Every structure is written in structure tokens, then in C-alpha cells.
Amino acid sequence: MDLPTTVWEKRPLRAGLYLVATPIGAARDITLRALDILASADVLAAEDTRTLRHLMEIHGVPLAGRSIVPCHDHNEGAAAGRLLRAVAEGKSVAYASEAGTPLVSDPGFVMAREAVAQDLPVIAAPGASAVLCALAVAGLPSDRFLFAGFAPPARAARRSFVGDLREVQATLVLYESPKRLAALLEDMVEVLGAGRQAAVCRELTKRFEEVRRGTLAELAAEFAAREVKGEVVVLVDRAEPARADTATWEEALDQAMVTLSVKDAAAMVAEAYGLPRREVYQVALSRGQGR
Q1: CA 62 from chain center: how many Å?
Q2: Which secondary-structure segment (H or E) carries 19?
Q3: Which among 41, 204, 251, 256 would be 20 to 30 A from 70, CA to CA?
């Protein structure tokens, strides 16, 4: 491994809680600003102290006598109090997840929310996120998405969880254990439909990165027959817009045509109900001529 060529020195950093994103795979995906903060913060905290210590060693960031405070799912309530007292005393506290962005299925929410409640500064140092990496490579619409976190491990709860997402008009993004991936895909086929486009992203930014795209049925068949390892992100295309009952939108069209032209009324109703504009316009023309 190449030795770091930059010497990171402690620089003045204003008091606050700094949420530092760390790489999800490739160590070089960390930002220069994140390294500045890690070098300069008065207090360091991490979900996994060994991971942060190793990352700092890779990039030549000295601890300079500082210890790293553990702050994870099992102790966040107690650790948050200690860390926020430091912020209140005018110190800078840098918190890093084991990988990725704090709060995105990682600890940090309890501490960040309490900092906000105490009117203490909370500053984001953005960087790697498996959600955004997966959206970038999945080939699915990214203008609107819903990050749903992890599905429940029990089958009945998982199917109910997926059912709640059935009509969401946004690309669905979930994390999943490699051991439960096949079961999740099977349930998605049954609940969401076999033909929905989807993608399975595995080990993003790492040596064995893999992205598989296809319908839910195709992906379910593929992963049912293979062993999966590593971090997994599952993405599913948005639901098809539900078509309104014909009588409902035709009634709305009649009302719109009282005050609007045929063209404008058709355009408004088509947009409101997610219908083809030409189809609504033809109906508007026939109803207008009948008056």
C-alpha cells in the first residue's frame, strides 16, 4: 500500500457535532474534508473504534494523544450524553459510522436529535453512502426514491413490510443480509409482482462489486440457486400509477369544462389522475359536442 503523502495537522475547528461519512469499501473514497475534521476534532467517536483507527492510519491522520469514544447501538444513549457535554463546553466532536454515512441505518440518530434539541451545532461531512451508490448504478429512476432500511427477518412481518411499499411511486431501496436475500426476493415477487424491474447491488466499491439487473422474477430465480456474501442493496422500480375509476375522472372532467376550455380541462384532469392526455382530450371533445 502506498504511504500517505499528505501530513494532516490539527487546525482550528468550531465547536459542534460533526457527522463524518466514511468509505463503504475503497479507503480512498473518504473526502479531504473528512480527513481535515478527523485530524482537527477535539474528540473522536466511532461506531467501531478499530475501523476508524485503521482508516486514520491508512491516510496518515494522527491520533495525537486522543482516544476514540465508542458510540454504537448498545451504548449510544449513554455515550451521547458524554459527547454532547463536550460540544456544550465548546469542543468539536467528530462521529463516524463503521462505513458510510451516520444515521443511514447506522447509529448517530439519538445523538444528533439530542444535539438539535439542545440547540447545539450539527454539521454534516458528506461522503460515501450505499444508498446513493446503488441508485447511481442500478439503472432505475432516481428522481424520487424511498430508502426503507432493512426488511424484518420473519417471513410474515417481511411480507407485510413489503406490502406497505406496494403502491409507492418511487424507486424502493432496501438493505438486506446476504443470508436473507433469496427470501426477500421471493416475497417481493409474490407481493409486488414478478415483472417489476429491480437490481441487486453487492459489495459496492469493493473488489468483488456486482450489480445484477432484471425483473424480480429473474433475480429471484438467480439468487435462489447461489450463495451470496457481502453487503447487499436491493432496488425495485416504482409502482405503476393506479388508474382512476372512469366515472370518477369523467365527472371531474365535466366539472372542469364548466369554467375551462376543452383543451385546458383535459390537460388538468389528465395530470391530476395520471392519464394519457390524448385519451382524456378525446373524451372531452365528445362530451363537449354533446352539449
Answers
A1: 31
A2: strand 16-20
A3: 204
The answer to whether the CB of 134 falls within 8 A of the CB of 235 is yes
| HSE, side-chain direction, 13 A CA sphere, residue 58 | 15
- CA proximity to 256, closest of 243, 242, 271: 271
pLDDT digits (tens, 9 = 90+) for 189-224: 999 999 999 999 999 999 999 999 999 999 999 999
Is the pTM here over 0.70, yes or no?
yes
Task: Write the DSSP assignment of 183-198 as a string of letters.
Answer: HHHHHHHHHH-TT-EE
As beta bridge partners, residue 236 has: 172, 198
Q: Which residues of 71-96 are buried (b: 16+ CB within 10 A; e: fewer)?
A: bbeeebeebbeebbebbeeebbbbbb
Q: For 30-45, b where at least 16 C-beta lie within 10 A, e where not — what string?
A: bbeebbbbbbbbbbbb
CB 142 within 8 A of CB 135: yes
Cα–Cα distance for residue pair 131/231, rounded to 1 Å: 12
Cell of 276: 394519457
CB 134 within 8 A of CB 204: yes
Alpha-carbon distance of 40 to 55, in angstroms, equals 15
